[in-house]
């Protein structure tokens, strides 16, 4: 398959719209954010995007994945059909690209010895998170990756942003990013949604007074039963 940067970019920008339609269509049958099948769908999107960006991209990353291969295949196929619909008049063109990728992903799933019954992800209570992060000296923020909103933070983060901790909960993290860095933030959060690989990047946070603070961020992903969180440790540089 030849690289197709246009469709690779399209999948990234339209992912949320496709996921929303798929969720509405499946209703209660839609796996939760932390379900292994949902993780498998994220890996399929990463695989598809990588193959569309580069012809020599590797095989699907299935390490540590324990899923019902049949249920996962149905989910991936459903996502591809919705993507085709969202693409409108060019849907057939997209389908021609996605079908062989979905088939390869399915083959890898079926052939994987690690495909088995789904494990349930541990529950993460806000009180438990708060107790752990309050003792960290660096700014620590948990961001709901899908919504882009602040789910939790420690006192050091509230001090850095010059806003009361309670007032920050539910606020968009983008409100505290410098305009020039918002593209980077979107890209890094998208990467965390698609992959569990830790991220490290430099950017700037803007406090309530408009002052910019250069920070180095280490970001990791945590999947709860209800959502995917980006755990951001920010050190002023």
Arithmetic mean of pLDDT: 83
**Overall CATH architecture of the largest domain:** 2-Layer Sandwich
What spatial order of strands do you see in the largest sheet? 2-1-5-4-3
Low-confidence stretches: 113-124
Domain module count: 2
Could you characterize what this model shows?
The chain is of the alpha+beta class and 237 residues long. The protein folds into two domains: 5-111; 126-236, PAS domain (Beta-Lactamase). The protein has eight helices and five strands; from the N terminus they run αααααββαααβββ. A five-stranded antiparallel sheet has the order 2-1-5-4-3. Strand 1 (139-144) and strand 2 form a beta hairpin. Helix 2 crosses helix 3, helix 2 crosses helix 4 and helix 3 packs antiparallel against helix 4. The longest helix is centred in the N-terminal third of the chain and has 22 residues, at 5-26. Residues 113-124 have low confidence and may be disordered.
Brief characterization of the structure:
This protein is an alpha+beta fold. It is 47% helix and 17% strand. It folds into two domains: 107 residues; 111 residues, Beta-Lactamase (2-Layer Sandwich).
Which terms would index this structure?
single chain, 237 residues, alpha+beta, Beta-Lactamase, 2 domains, 5-stranded antiparallel beta sheet, 8 helices, 47% helix, elongated
List the helices and strands and how they pair.
Elements: H1 5-26, H2 36-53, H3 69-86, H4 91-111, H5 126-133, E1 139-144, E2 149-153, H6 155-161, H7 165-168, H8 182-194, E3 199-206, E4 212-223, E5 228-236
Antiparallel strand pairs: 1-2, 1-5, 3-4, 4-5
